[in-house]
């Protein structure tokens, strides 16, 4: 242990002598990183920061009402599907699913022409992933293009659980292409910045997702209302969706249970500070650090290569120097030099 300490002390002294014997090189090693840091400090002091207050986004012009204006109504969705020969898929294939489609078709007859029922979710996924997907686009095509899918996990009478799954190429300029979301040169670059861009937020409305959800929820509310009515009249038998097709159950049209004036707005954001320094310097930060520390690192490599080339290292090994002590001495030398610069920069 004592031998290693003496060797390390001797090697550090040797490195120190090399440094002071080349004052211009040593000064350049210290000044270049310092100049880069001072340059960054100068840019930082000249760039202002902007404090953005909390935004509730609950104000005029920030709402999109479902089924109106830029948000398509269900009839428009069906007409677009029919024009493009695309389908809405439903799963699983149960009497409840078929009865629901029949009842909704009373108000929207086009649904019968653009809907396709699959045995279960697995069959739907298998078809979409198969080579047969979308191989024909004519009427009554067995392999249509699926633009949206409604998958029921539970179908009443007390509990309804379903999922809406949309193709990202959905009509009405729907969800973004997933290959461009994280593209720093793509159309969704602003989504990566601070704050809220309401356009991606509204895509649930533009795409027809909320329109389809509104129609399904309207039917579910109707089914729940019918169940409560039967319970109030003493009918203790749980009513299924199949029984809703009777004339008595349709005395009140199911569309009267449609939720109205549903609007979408972005979630509020907290107060945040927008630092323009980051956006200005992010493209050149790597190059600046590279230029600042390239020369010191190159000098470190030069020292070690020179000592090996001149057989200095082999001579030291012959005198009993341990290989680990040699490398540790240069590591400590440059670690001390860089830490000293960091302390000066921090001060």
UniProtKB/TrEMBL annotation:
Keywords, in A-Z order: Membrane, Transmembrane, Transmembrane helix
Membrane topology: Multi-pass membrane protein
Xref: InterPro entries: ABC2_TM, ABCA
GO cellular component terms listed in the entry, alphabetical order: membrane
Subcellular location(s) of the protein: Membrane
Lineage: Eukaryota, Viridiplantae, Streptophyta, Embryophyta, Tracheophyta
Single GO MF descriptor: ABC-type transporter activity
Chain ranges of the ABC-2 type transporter transmembrane domain: 185-336
Membrane-spanning intervals of the chain: 20-43
Domain of life: Eukaryota
Signal peptide bounds: none
Name under which the protein is recorded: ABC transporter A, ABCA
